[in-house]
Structure formats: C-alpha cells, structure tokens
Amino acid sequence: MGFLFNKIAIVGVGMIGGSLAMAIKKKGIAREILGIDIDRKNLDEAKKSGIIDYALNFKSKTIELQKVRLIIVATPVRSIPRAIEKLSPWLDEGTIITDTGSVKGSVVKDIEDILQKGVFFIGGHPIAGSELSGVKSASGDLFAGAKIILTPTGKNSSPALRKVKEFWTRLGSKVILMKPKEHDRVFAAVSHLPHILAFSLVNTLSELHFNNQNPFKFAGEGFKDFTRIAQSNPSMWHDIVLENKDQILDSMDHFMSTFEKIKSLIEKSEGKKIRKEFSKAQKLRKKLS
C-alpha cells in the first residue's frame, strides 16, 4: 500500500504527537514527517531518535509547510485554535487539519471561524494515551485497536473527511463519528469527571491526618489503580476543564447526587439498599471487561 500523504506535519511532539509520528512511519502512511514544537528538547529528542524527519521551532517567524497536506495538532486544548491561526498564512488550498484534543465544541467553532476558504478542519479525539507525557513516552502501537472520534460539521468537505478516516483506519483505529456537542457531553462523563475525582481523592487524602502517619504509606493497589490518572499533566487538564466547563459541571452534579444518595443510605444504615447500589455498579462494571 502506497503513501497516503507525501508529507505530514505534527504540531506538538509530545507523547501523543510522538506516538502518531512513530505509527505513521511504522504503517508507511507518509513519506516525510515534519515535527513542530515550542519545546526544543522535545524536537531534538524526536529528530535524534528518527521519529520525525524535520524539526521546526514553532517560535520561528516563518513556518515552511511546502508539500504538507495533512497537519495534526497535538497540543493542549486551549492552544489548538491559536496554533492553527499562526499556521494560517502558510496553508495551501486543500490542506487538511485535524487534532487530538478531548474537547470539541468550542475548539471546532473557533477554528472554523478563522480558517480560510479551501482549508478543512476535521476534529479528532483518539481514545488512547496515558498519564505520562513527553516524546520519550511515545509508542508506535498506541493507536492500534483504539477508538478515534471524529467530529465533522457541515463546513467539511467529503473528500477531506474520507482522507482523515482512511488515515486513522490505516493506523489500526476504529473510527466513530459524533457531533461536537455530543462528544463533549459524553467525554465529560467518561473521561473528564473521572480525572477530577482522581485529583480530588489524592488531595483529600493529603489533608487527612492520622496521628502524624502519612496515609499514602498504607495505600494499596486499589487506591493506586483508581488514582493513576491523577499523575496526568495539570496544564493539559486545566485547559480541558475550562473549555468543557458546562458539560463537566453537569456531570459533577449528577455524580454528587448519586454520592449524596449513598452517603444518606450509610447514615441510615440501610444495608439492603447499600448492597443494591453496590451490586448495580458491579454488574455494570463487569460489562466493560
């Protein structure tokens, strides 16, 4: 199978961007990869290891994008529209842009407002990653078998959407189409809320005192599993919670209602009802296995 693109540019060569570059090379999707980043160390590491073919500091006054027909922006959510706006003067007609951010509504709208005619943005969100960051954490197999959510709008061209779908399919991902607002409502519940809970639980434990004993010394595997995502990049999650604020607050309200319900059952020693709530959750969770 031949190259899908002659040259792909990846803006943000961290764990996600680096993993994309590795997967693109592994699957033979592009002849060349241009890495763009403000972090010189990340760029040098990616170039040295052969993850990218060319490196460009995003702080440069001139950004050469000759022969680039696909640009993937893998930066924190709030910087995605700004990154694309900076690239705009060098974009050729027919260029396709996609991203890897986990908020779509505000991002898609902001980008479509600034894009020139003939340049297309297809919102993307790969359901893959980890709490780690940096190009040293990249893996060429990260997207194999993973879901990728694409959020096209009426402003997208069918050929551009087909091209992005083919790109992710060749990486081994399962493509799912959603509307931007639907995406944000779903991921506020299944991703953003759990991260907030993990951050909150770790902070709660840090504020408890047991006769000068450090409670973290007694944390078992259950606690470590539950709070693993609290190691995630704070700057990245700062952007996510502010950009998807309304949907996250709605999910938090639903969670707090359920939490208060269980708290009330415990206060009243309602054993049968407590067991019923726990059994319900157990059955639902087993379906994920």
Automatic annotation (TrEMBL):
GO molecular function: NAD+ binding; prephenate dehydrogenase (NAD+) activity; prephenate dehydrogenase (NADP+) activity
Entry keyword set: Amino-acid biosynthesis, Aromatic amino acid biosynthesis, Membrane, NAD, Oxidoreductase, Transmembrane, Transmembrane helix, Tyrosine biosynthesis
Highest taxon in the source lineage: Bacteria
InterPro entries (alphabetical): 6-PGluconate_DH-like_C_sf, NAD(P)-bd_dom_sf, PDH_C, PDH_N, Preph/Arog_dehydrog, Prephen_DH
Domain Prephenate/arogenate dehydrogenase: 6-289
GO biological process, one term: tyrosine biosynthetic process
Pathway assigned in UniProt: Amino-acid biosynthesis; L-tyrosine biosynthesis; (4-hydroxyphenyl)pyruvate from prephenate (NAD(+) route): step 1/1
Transmembrane segments: 6-24
EC number: 1.3.1.12
Catalytic activity: prephenate + NAD(+) = 3-(4-hydroxyphenyl)pyruvate + CO2 + NADH
Protein family: Belongs to the prephenate/arogenate dehydrogenase family.
PANTHER family: PREPHENATE DEHYDROGENASE, PREPHENATE DEHYDROGENASE [NADP(+)]
Protein name: prephenate dehydrogenase
Species of provenance: Candidatus Schekmanbacteria bacterium RBG_16_38_11
